[in-house]
Amino acid sequence: MSTLKTAEQWSQIGFYPHHGICIPISALRTKKSCGIGEFIDLIPLIDWCKSLKFDCIQLLPINDSGDDPSPYNPISSIALDPIYLSLADLTDAGPLTVELEHFQPFTELDRVARDQVKHQKMQWLFQYYQLVFPSISNTVPYQSFVEENPWLQTYALFKAIKDEYGGKRWEDWPIEYQVPDLKYINEKQVAVNYHIFLQYLCFSQMRKVKAYATERKIFLKGDIPILLSPDSADVWAHRHLFRFDLVAGAPPDYYNANGQKWGFPLFNWDEIQKSGFSWWKQRLKTMENFFHIYRIDHVVGFFRIWGIPKDKKPTEGHYVPSDTSLWDHQGREILEMMIHSSQLLPIAEDLGTIPKGVRPILKELGICRTIVMRWERHWEGDKSFVPFSQYDPFSLTTMSTPDTEPFKLWWKKYPDEAIPFAHFRNWSYHPDLTPQQQFDIIRDAHHTPSYFHINILQEYLSLFPELVWPNLEDERFNVPGTLLPTNWTYRFRPYLEDLLAHQELRETIGKILEN
Predict the structure, then answer these.
(1) SS3 of residue 382 by DSSP
(2) Is this prediction's pTM over 0.85?
């Protein structure tokens, strides 16, 4: 590594092994939760991690994603999703507090009933807004929040108009609203104030969570989706920063023979650069309120991205830029901008088909890459697995990702892939992992040379049948490329209070982390 561009960020995190868990906030539930995991639910989780000697909690994106349950289809690059607001933490709710018991049936369901929870929460929050906004709006903290976040006005206007027209895409609004004009704020002032107020609450709660984590030396790792919904406030307000002749996707690969078509607009990097990358800088700077570390989603997309004509199949796309000699320069320039624009330490998600120049640049810049153990093989050679002891320290080791099966399900479902892994590990293969094998592989995941070792929480819970759902398939967050009603509705089986009290789990994780 010739140059460490991230030296300042690393100095705050430390060059030593970090261990932790990955969760979507939505999957948590506590005795106080209102139908879905909430920001303040992270506080007892932080205490649990501290007691286990875990020092990282990785969150899936918490941006406002509108009516889409996928956290990777945000309608704002900055705004947080108010569905995660902890209503019980709003102690000045007065008579509205009694109504919180109405959320209990939703909290007891095996899966998150997102649409119903959101509808009921937004109704409750509007009543709360009417109750407390007159007094809160005159406070210095609220007025400072509005002044320090100029993006709020446009975002809130976008939300107000979207609500008024039943959630329709901005392209289907009346023509006068399709081009942002802040003059419309006055006629929609109540709705605009409501959405700004919700962001004030979201920011306040997540700042509280970060302060709590910082005090306990627990690092919160955020997730910043590289792309945005075409129906987002950012695309509506900053069309010149995006390309609409192509949509993003991925070419065919080992796991997706037909490729993938995501439908996100591409960035217009020439225009973004002309503005000094101000849009990206604002986005990263705001995330410092909530996180210490962040995941760069699809980092290879900064070097080149698969662009597909809107009416074509993924196989008919092409890389943008088309000139391969431009890839390394573009990727390096963007990553250096991101490093110099934020105190957050970046960790790259570099999975899939990766050009040769990407990983050397990541290492030179001091950015950890992501290693999924089942995929870390000599792909250009004999396809043998890379010994765990040979993993690059500038990496994050994980057993699975939120888009894959947990390890135990993968092992059972894909014997053609699991059998070579079993042989590599000197195990005989049986579709059902033994408890000892499961323990050993999790332990392996925490004892590679990597600086970071973070697994989805299900990997640990699956050591105890009573902590996971009876059907292994129900332990998945998402099945990419599908529109299954179960996608992103996953909920951890135990209430958080019961999980934290599970002494055997606590003792087992202690043994996993032992040197």
Answers:
(1) coil
(2) yes
Q: 345 is written with which tokens?
A: 């330490």
Under 8 Å between Cβ of 505 and 460: yes
- H or E element in which residue 278 lies: helix 278-287
Chain segment 125-170, per-residue pLDDT in tens: 999 999 999 999 999 999 999 999 999 999 999 999 999 999 999 9
Q: Supply the pLDDT for residue 3.
A: 61
What is the C-alpha separation between 485 and 114, in angstroms, rounded? 11
**Quick one: which of 248, 368, 220 has its CA closest to 317?**
248
**pLDDT digit string, tens, across residues 12-47:** 999 999 999 999 999 999 999 999 999 999 999 999
Could you give the C-alpha distances from 411 to 254, 404, 508, in angstroms and in order? 18, 12, 21
DSSP codes joined into one string, 54-103: --EEEE---B--TT-S-TTS-S-SSPBPGGG--GGG-TT-GGGGGGGGGG
Residues forming a β-bridge with 80: 63
Measured CA to CA, the distance from residue 149 to residue 285 in angstroms comes to 11
Q: Tally Cβ neighbours within 10 Å of residue 197.
A: 23
